[in-house]
Amino acid sequence: MNELSSRYNPAETEDKLYKFCQDNNLFSAKPDPTKKPFSIVIPPPNVTGILHMGHALNNTIQDILIRYHRMKGEESLWMPGTDHAGIATQNVVEKSIAKEGLKRQDLGRDKFIERVWAWREQYGSTIIHQLKKLGASCDWPRTRFTMDEEYSKAVMEVFVRLYEKGLIYQGNYIINWCPRCQTALSDEEAPHRELNGNLYYLKYPLKSEPDNFVVVATTRPETMLGDTAVAVNPKDKRYKNLVGKTLILPLANREIKIIADAMVDMKFGTGAVKVTPAHDPNDYALGKKHHLDFINVMYPDGRMNESAGDYKDMDRFEAREVILEDLKEKGLLEKIEPHQLSAGHCYRCHTIIEPYLSKQWFVKMKPLAGPAIEAVKKGKIKFYPKRWTKVYLNWMEDIQDWCISRQIWWGHRIPVYYCKNCKDKGVIVSKVKPDKCPVCGATDIYQDEDVLDTWFSSWLWPFATFGWPEKSDDLKYFYPTSTLVTAPEIIFFWVARMIMAGLEFMHEIPFSDVYIHGTVRDIEGKKMSKSLGNVIDPLDIIKEYGTDALRFSLISITAQGQDVFLNKERFEQGRNFANKIWNASRFILMNLDPAYIKTDLCVFFKKEDLDIVNRWILSRFYSVLKEVNKDLDTYKFNEAANTLYTFFWHEFCDWYLEMIKPDIKNPHNQVVMYKVLEKSLRMLHPFMPFITDEIWQRLESKQESIMVAPWPHIQEELIDKKTEHKMSSLLGIVTAIRKMRLELDIPLQTEVAVIVSSSNKEIRELIEGLSEQVKNLAKLNSLEIKTKYTHIKSSFTVIMKDMHLTIPLAGLLDVEKEKEKIQARIHQAEGEIKAKEKMLGNKEFLKKAPLEVVEKEKARLLELGDILKRLEAIKNELQ
RNA sequence: GGGCUCAUAGCUCAGUUGGUUAGAGCGUUGCGUUGACAUCGCAAAGGUCAGAGGUUCAAGUCCUCUUGGGCCCACCA
Fold first, then answer.
1. Could you tell me the pLDDT band of residue A792, with boundaries at 50, 70 and 90?
2. Does residue A29 have a pLDDT over 80?
3. What's the pLDDT at A783?
4. In what order do the strands lie in the sheet with A192-205?
5. Which residues pair with A176 in a beta bridge?
6. Which of A130, A206, A303, A469 suits a disulfide with A51, CB 3.0-4.6 Å?
7. Which residue is nearest to nucleotide B38 (CA to C1')?
8. Nucleotide closest to residue A646 (CA–C1')
9. Residue A245: half-sphere exposure toward Cβ, Cα within 13 Å
10. What gap in Å lies between CA A518 and CA A356, rounded to an integer?
11. Is the pLDDT of residue A385 over 90?
12. pLDDT mean across residues, chain A
């Protein structure tokens, strides 16, 4: 057996142990019919990604689940991979070639794509390396990439199937257009943000009476050049006799009509709204309804186009200023009011998006959403915490069609082909490029320029990673996966769509549980982001405190579904805990006779032979195990972590080890301290994989990782709540004695005897029986407890040598007040007993409630009886 | 406009279908380093559980309202 060095060194051990596990294939999983499968697919990070705290939290949670289930004997697979992240990656590579003075257009499509692949080759596994530093026990040889050849096949397959089912169509719509990225964005990719803008009031003269005007209000005056009508509410008396009349659109000098539509809000602005069907979604709808012209006044890059006349080639915002100047000059600008407005922003580059009319590909979502709503409503898929269910359902029930085409180069190219010969007459949708046109037979065939939205590949992740559409063994065994662990911001992007895809293509849900964790924020509640400069880099924390410290601290503050507020100091807790584990283990190793290692706990002793201290710690251990199991099964990671923390540090180290110190060579103590340590290590392992493994491998003196050790079994017979209760009273007494010693300023070596008398024989005996050990407690060396104990903890009689002293510990005891308190407690206990009796007498309850709950209630009832008796004894004593 | 969420110690937060004396970490203060651990130990101070009302034998926990934060969704030009 090796001795442990005086201080744990994370840097040294982490890489060594991770390599050990990888070399021994401990992370790999394959179908095994004798075992229950447990699988998680990683939310694939962007290839451009670098590890941030969000990843650290997300992946630590997954790793805990995987390691826990693996130890429980389930065939546990954590499927890793990365996402090609269309726009993000293209942006990165564009930036990199810009250093050579190149634009992607200079290279051309094929050459540019080559550069992207080259970039991916070089930097694409950064995030993977970083996940390994985190201790993630993924089955790395399986690593998938959404642009892999095999994966791409699945994407094509899906497109074709949906098209053939009539669920994919092409159409002209107002979409969110990013003029910088020059691509369409889905609604989810264009979040609205508040802006301080202006509301401009423009005067449009009437054709028949050029001195009369209709005033319209707009936030985007540059779009006026594309106006093809002005709309008013038919109920609006102000405009009633103007409907149908013609206006002259200033600057453009075009004639436009005044139309009436109920969509117009009379209260907003002037009640008259300019209609620009090509540049606004509402106006587009009006345009369709009233058969207006669609005049597009912008180039895709946001500059004004030839329809804008004199303003051609100006940037949209520049044009706005010039147009306002010109209108002002003509006296057609009535006023400008400051106005709070919200506008969509590109989620990648934060440019204000332009609602833009263009031809795009869409997926009809309603038919896909139906089954996905059902699955959640019927409870086949459960969200943790529950409240996300509602968010999900709200969105699904009002789902809009999904714009899936993007005008970028990096991504899955849309499998749609056109024949040059019979142009526009039809499209050919095919997984592979056809040799000739099926209509005219011509061979001059070209592919649609657009690529698919990145999410169009990631929504297939839970089955495409297993080789779908092939019916692989992996797919059969590991699908549906068990739990999805992700952040709330991608419920719509990803989670909902995966559910739809799973049900559509696999005819089965993709996962049964969805655990949504909080967002990692800084201590001021701001989202951590590079631009704010408030980032705490997990890799820095790993360097400074160790991976285990990072993981433990993160988990211990992650209450289910709450956002995580972080500052660096939080990680000290994890580091200190690691240190504690290390030192306790070191102490035990120093004092352990190796002969006891192999001893079977149950064979070695009878429970009745153990003293209360050992009985207590064993009972506590198994109670903790039970709690941790429950917490992990219900995704309460912080509670599991904190339960373990408190048990290990404040019960096992602070009390148990201190109490057995004087008699540490006693075989009972030897076996129990060793067993509790080694089982605790196993339980701590999912949270702190490295330090537990390092200690374990030395404890057991064998070349085997703790990760393949079984998760401890609960031994119900060793759980003894009564003993736990007794012990906690006892510890309370000892604590009180310590306090008393301080207050009396009794030097450590003074002989003190506390006389304890009690009507509770059991406790008295307990204290007497324990006195040997209590006597030996650290800093209580010469304390001997003899007899007197009263129920009232705050008062003790102390004998110093032969001098009797009665000392109220916490100030003088107010008997009247104390009586009142006791009476209140009695009242409360009686009330509770009544309620419990009623509950246990209720047949409905007994029928419905799980056995466990009933047992718990019964135990509580018994306990209450004891409490009541005790309270009454105290009451009598006070009289 | 609709929905969600939060308010508990100086700070950051736990608190499991209502039930024993409301907890932790950090910070503050005092005492303690003779072989596990100063990345430590023992203790102290610090709470009208945001406010008001209600249900109950019993409310931090359930209901209503008020106040003040945060987040998401939505077609206010």
1. very low
2. yes
3. 34
4. A213-218, A192-205, A333-344
5. A185, A355
6. A130
7. A576
8. B24
9. 18
10. 35
11. no
12. 80
Q: Which residues contact A246 (CB under 8 A, 6 or more apart)?
A: A206, A207, A208, A255, A256, A257, A258
- Regarding predicted confidence, which is higher, A685 or A47? A685
Alpha-helix residue ranges (DSSP H) falling in A10-148: 10-23, 53-71, 86-98, 104-107, 109-123, 126-133
* Site of tokens 């009509």: A257
Q: What is the pLDDT of residue A650?
A: 85
Whether residue A37 has a cis bond before it, omega within 30° of 0: no
pLDDT in tens, A53-67: 888 888 999 999 999
The two three-digit tokens of residue A134, written as one number: 């985190």
> Exposure of A292 by Cβ count < 10 A (0-12 exposed, 13-18 middle, 19+ buried)?
buried
Residue A631: which of A644, A619, A620 has the closest Cα?
A644
Instruction: Give the DSSP letter of residue A165.
Output: T
Nearest nucleotide to A739 (CA to C1') is B43
CB of A784 within 8 A of CB of A844?
no
C-alpha A495/C-alpha A515 separation (Å) is 11
- For A551, the enclosing helix (H) or strand (E) is helix A547-556
Say if CB A375 and CB A499 are below 8 A apart: yes
Burial A802-837 (b: 16+ CB within 10 A, else e): eeeeeeebeeeeeeeebeeebeebbeebeeebeebe
pLDDT of residue A875: 73
Q: What whole-number distance in Å separates Cα of residue A689 and Cα of residue A675?
A: 19
Q: Tell me whether the omega of the peptide bond preceding residue A480 falls within 30 degrees of 0, making it cis.
A: yes
Q: What is the DSSP annotation of A36-72?
A: -EEEEE--PPBTT----HHHHHHHHHHHHHHHHHHHT
Q: Is residue A464 scored above 90 in pLDDT?
A: yes
How many Å from the N-terminal Cα to the C-terminal Cα in chain A?
A: 61
* Average pLDDT, integer, range A855-872: 78
Chain B bases closer than 7 A to any CB of the protein:
3-6, 11-17, 19-21, 24-26, 30, 32, 35-37, 39-44, 57-58, 69-77
CA atoms of A551 and A535, how far apart (whole Å): 17
pLDDT given at position A603 = 59
DSSP reduced 3-state for A260: strand
pLDDT value of residue A158: 95
Give the nucleotide nearest to A830 (CA→C1').
B57
Q: What is the mean pLDDT of residues A113-127?
A: 88
CB crowding A370-407: b at 16 or more within 10 Å, else e: eebbebbeeeebebbeeebbeebbeebeebebbbbbbb
φ/ψ (deg, to 5) at A592: -95, 130
In contact, A133 and A126? CB cutoff 8 Å: no
Give the integer Cα–Cα distance in Å for A493 and A510. Answer: 15
Q: A795 falls in which pLDDT band (50, 70, 90)?
A: very low
Tell me the nt nearest to A821, Cα to C1': B21
Question: What is the number of other CB atoms lying within 10 angstroms of the CB of residue A634?
Answer: 12
